[in-house]
């Protein structure tokens, strides 16, 4: 599912996943009510919802309800803490825009990068 098949480029941290998901949504668009637009499950070229973008960039399923045992699940769980709703509900809000999603993903990524940096020290 990872758009970049090179495992060396696969995100390794929550902040990297969030930034990669933001890049994907910014480039390909935001969809609601489904993980990604397109009739085929192996079509990753169209718009994605937030969870769909997380799934695509990690190659892991975050699940509808977070699975903290994998990077995608941890990312969804952390994002849910920041948005105050289940990620799919937040993403699918009628007034939610692509710009709002991309900005929020980048903001949370920045905060998580600061947190991750603190863990190294």
Give a written overview of the molecule.
With 121 residues, this protein is mainly alpha-helical. Helix 1 (14-28) crosses helix 3. The chain has five helices and no strands. The chain has helices at residues 14-28, 50-58, 71-83, 87-91, 98-120. The protein has one domain (7-120).
Strand and helix layout:
Elements: H1 14-28, H2 50-58, H3 71-83, H4 87-91, H5 98-120
Helix pairs in contact: 1-2, 1-3, 1-5, 2-3
Query: What pattern of helices and strands is seen along the backbone?
Result: HHHHH
Sum up the overall morphology in one term: globular
Please count the beta strands (DSSP E, at least 2 residues each). 0
User: What gap, in angstroms, lies between the N and C termini?
Assistant: 33 Å
Roughly what is the average pLDDT, rounded to an integer?
87
What integer value in Å does the Rg equal?
Answer: 13 Å
Strand content: under 5%
> How many H/I helices?
5
Q: Give the total of domains.
A: 1
Structural class comes to mainly alpha
Q: Mind describing the biggest β-sheet?
A: none
What percent of residues adopt helix (DSSP H or I)? 40-55%
Low-confidence stretches: none
Summarize, please.
The chain has 121 residues and is mainly α. It has one domain. The chain is built from five helices and no strands.
Descriptive tags:
121 residues
């Amino acid at each position: 599912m990872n758009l970049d098949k090179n495992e060396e480029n696969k995100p390794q941290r929550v902040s990297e996943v969030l930034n990669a998901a933001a890049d994907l949504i910014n480039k390909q668009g935001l969809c609601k009510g489904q993980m990604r637009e397109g009739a085929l499950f192996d079509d990753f070229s169209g718009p994605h919802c937030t969870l769909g973008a997380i799934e695509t960039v990690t190659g892991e399923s975050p699940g509808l309800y977070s699975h903290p045992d994998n990077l995608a699940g941890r990312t969804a769980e952390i994002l849910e803490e920041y948005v105050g709703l289940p990620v799919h509900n937040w993403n699918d809000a009628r007034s939610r825009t692509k710009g709002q999603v991309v900005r929020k993903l980048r903001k949370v990524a920045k905060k998580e990068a600061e947190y991750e940096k603190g863990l190294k020290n």
